[in-house]
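Quick question, first post here. What does this chain look like in 3D?
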Amino acid sequence: MMPTLAGHPLLDHPVIPLATVRAEEHIDAIGDGLVAADLPVVEVALRGPHGMTAIRRLAARGDLLVGAGTVLTSEQAAEALDAGAGFIVAPGLDIEVVQRVTAAGCPVIPGVLSPTEVAAAARLGLTHLKLFPASAVDARVMLGAYADVFPDIRFMPSSGVNQHNIGEFARLPSVFAVSGSWITAAAAAGAAGAAAVTEAARTALAACPTAGLPR
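> Answer (accepted):
Ran it through. Tokens below.
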């Protein structure tokens, strides 16, 4: 049976911070900052040498829902799950990745952009997808059209979402969450990194609707 996000704790959060970890010393600042902001969720991108380390360390805390992003192969997916990832996000619709993750009983959010890809994902039984790269198209217009054509599909736009337009995306009927890297990027602010992450996360949450979100 295809695991879905129905009832999954990921749906408690209208914002899914994306973390590309540039240095190991940023890992704890990201975790501490998000938890302090009451946004205990993070998607760790597998870009560079610190991705898996960050997943292991953040998942071991026990107070964060940690996912793996930029998952390109089924082998990467399996390694991320072994490291403690609670959900998998991929930039594209790779059937082997989808099958590997769902066989493990874990939710997967593959990336799509075209109507053909959305329809293919729906045929696989998927209901929650990543719109990527949202910056390459007029994403708000596209998501409005998809709400009519694919009423049972919900999207997480990624790329092009920032602190200035997050509220506009979060209010679209077809959006279940928004993804962005600016929140965790604040961890690079030295000793004030955790506090900077907290501030960015709280600002993002304040821009999002608090009730009536499609799930």
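The chain has nine helices and nine strands.
Residues 193-206 form the longest helix (14 residues).
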